[in-house]
Amino acid sequence: MKLIDGKALANTIKDEIAVEVAELKEKGGKTPHLAAVLIGDDPASAVYVRNKVRACEKVGFKSTLVRKDADTTEEEVLKIVEGLNNDPDIDGFIVQLPLPKHIDEEKVNLAIDPKKDVDGFHPMNVGRMALGLPSYLPATPFGIMQMLDRYEIETSGKHCVVIGRSNIVGTPMSILLSRKAKVGNCTVTLTHSRTKNLKAETLRADIIIAAIGRPDYLTADMVKEGVVIIDVGINRVDDASRKRGYRLVGDADFEGVAPKSSFITPVPGGVGPMTITSLLMNTLKSSRKEIYG
Ligand code: GUN
Question: What is the pTM of this model?
Answer without folding.
Answer: 0.97
